[in-house]
Design brief:
Blueprint (H helix, E strand, L loop, with lengths): L1 H29 L3 E6 L2 E6 L8 E3 L17 E3 L2 H4 L5 E3 L4
Length: 96
Amino acid sequence: MIAGLLVFNAILSYSQESNAQRALALLRRQLTIQVRVRRDGVWQRLPASELVPGDLIHLRVGDIVAADVQVTSGQMQVDHSAVTGESMPAEAGPGA
């Protein structure tokens, strides 16, 4: 009887571990930072890790930027708190 319970416990543990691994893989895919980038005259969505110098990106409210960018048009407030610890957003715009 004890051996049967141990086998049942092993099967149940393996099943739960497998489900947890699938859920973790799904979360990793969903949390990948995507960016709208213009390459070869076409706007497309790519992972931020594929950005290269000279790429033109389009930012909207709430976007996360995982790269150093130069603002060419528009004005925005940027939250640097995760990097610098500043509590207030900083102004960003062309030349700023």
